[in-house]
Amino acid sequence: MATPKEIIRDIYYPRLFDGGELWVADEIIAPEFFNNRHPTWPRGPEGIKKVVRSLHKKYDGAFHALHTEILLQVAEGNVVSTLTRQTGKGDEDIHLAELQSHFHIFNDAQLIVEHRVVYMPLPQ
Question: Which of 37, 73, 83, 121 is 20 to 30 A (C-alpha) from 12?
Fold first, then answer.
């Protein structure tokens, strides 16, 4: 079984977010999943699928256009902290946010139950 850190690094970002493989959410997201960035959206896999769809909609539905670069990742117990930079390609390269600090919390079944994010734009 993959560790929480491996799930985030090898599945969550490259396959679900960047690759748009929405079915992956059903395998790694708990039914009670909560996303603090979108607290009114559905819980569970459907909520994260909605996030992925909304990101890719910015790029005319091109799932290959989003790229998440992992800059730093630390795991302790059931919490994974990941510093990322996401970019997308539309008519031109677009930075969605300079830096994003994500915290994913896992349950005992190795499913993601909570996501918290902090956006950190760099000074101009």
Answer: 121
